[in-house]
Amino acid sequence: MSRRRLLVGVLGLGTTATGATILWAWPTYNSCPSKHEPITAEQCSLIRHVPDGHPVNPARNPGARVFPRFLENTEPLLKELQPIKKEYGINLIEPVHAAIYRWQMSYLPRPPPVNMLRVTGRPEHAQQRRPWGYGDTLNESALPPEIKAAADRIRALPGLRLGRLRDVTINWRHSSFLRLDPHLDPATDGENIFVLSVDAPAVLTLSPHNWYRLSRWLSMLTLEDERERVRREAERSWTSYDIDVLVPPGALLHLSGDARWKWTHGTRLGVPAAPGAGEEGERGRALLHWFGRPDALFGPTPERHSVVFAFAAPEE
Ligand SMILES: *[C@@H]1O[C@H](CO)[C@@H](O)[C@H](O)[C@H]1NC(C)=O
């Protein structure tokens, strides 16, 4: 083979490989079957494209619905969570990961303390006590009354078709450390994920899973500094296809279909409230968060409780 034909061959292969990779990573919006009624424009009212903050219409929504006034009064639930946190809550961030987080955040003038507390029925940790079980053996009679009432309200939402409740997880964060890296929930949780904000708002960001993985590989290949990557993701989000969902207190987010299986969800680290540094006390430490556009800031968020419910698809 001549060198010229070899070159053309290699270039052709390269182009094909690039094309195939892009095809593999391309965001999908309705590749997963859904048993629910179509998404309405109203359910998209708290959903925005990143980074321009444009509204998301149902055709470009991979399967996220927001019910803004799911709970009018969140006080009783917040109160109920306190003793449960004390009795069952554990921190699932290993010391080695906390150290990595601290190093990645060291570009911030005053990084927040790494923290998380979780109560779940999922088998996630050897030391964990699991008050209501998980999956096929989750025991709804063992749920505290306000949580049980919320699960029943979810089942009564119009337009959704749900099977059995498979998981209930309580999360608590403080000191405006809301960082949650993009992830897919465990497949065994089931088809339907519901995130209920109790006492504070949060933005959950959806990113196309494969596109996000591609951007992580590129970051590794280009030897991007981890601190620079974390800063870029906090300030500009994970991918250029990201979708932000604002979940105010008492609001409920539902993820199913592509949004459940093909898009990760996470919460950006946030940006410093006082970029000049030097500010003393909690305020100097506080991080603000943004919704849709990097300049649409809110916060700081001193603490946040959320409850995540997972439901199976209905039996055939
Ligand atoms: C479910 O929980 C209730 C209340 O805690 C308890 O009485 C019952 O024995 C549990 N059922 C099973 C099958 O574990």
**Order of neighbouring strands in the sheet with most strands:** 2-9-6-14-4-3
- Please summarize the sheet with the most strands: 6 strands, antiparallel
Proportion of helical residues:
25-40%
Tell me the number of helical segments per DSSP (H or I, 4 or more residues long): 8
Q: What's the CATH architecture name?
A: Sandwich
The rough form would be described as: globular
Sum up the structure in keywords.
single chain, 316 residues, alpha+beta, Jelly Rolls, 8 helices, 14 strands, globular, binds 2-acetamido-2-deoxy-beta-D-glucopyranose
Question: Topology of this protein?
Answer:
Layout: H1 3-25, E1 47-49, E2 64-67, H2 75-88, H3 95-104, E3 117-120, H4 145-155, E4 165-174, E5 180-183, E6 192-197, E7 202-208, H5 209-221, H6 226-236, E8 243-247, E9 252-255, H7 258-261, E10 263-267, E11 271-272, H8 281-285, E12 287-290, E13 297-298, E14 303-311
Antiparallel strand pairs: 1-8, 2-9, 3-4, 4-14, 5-10, 6-9, 6-14, 7-8, 7-10, 11-12, 12-13
The chain binds 2-acetamido-2-deoxy-beta-D-glucopyranose.
Structure notes:
The chain is an alpha+beta fold and 316 residues long. It has one domain (3-311): Jelly Rolls (Sandwich), CATH 2.60.120.590. The protein contains eight helices and 14 strands. It has helices at residues 3-25, 75-88, 95-104, 145-155, 209-221, 226-236, 258-261, 281-285; strands spanning 47-49, 64-67, 117-120, 165-174, 180-183, 192-197, 202-208, 243-247, 252-255, 263-267, 271-272, 287-290, 297-298, 303-311. The strands form three sheets. It has a six-stranded antiparallel β-sheet with strand order 2-9-6-14-4-3. Strand 12 and strand 13 (297-298) form a beta hairpin. It is globular, with a radius of gyration of 21 Å. The model has no long low-confidence stretch (mean pLDDT 93). The structure holds 2-acetamido-2-deoxy-beta-D-glucopyranose. Residues 139, 141-142 line the site of 2-acetamido-2-deoxy-beta-D-glucopyranose.
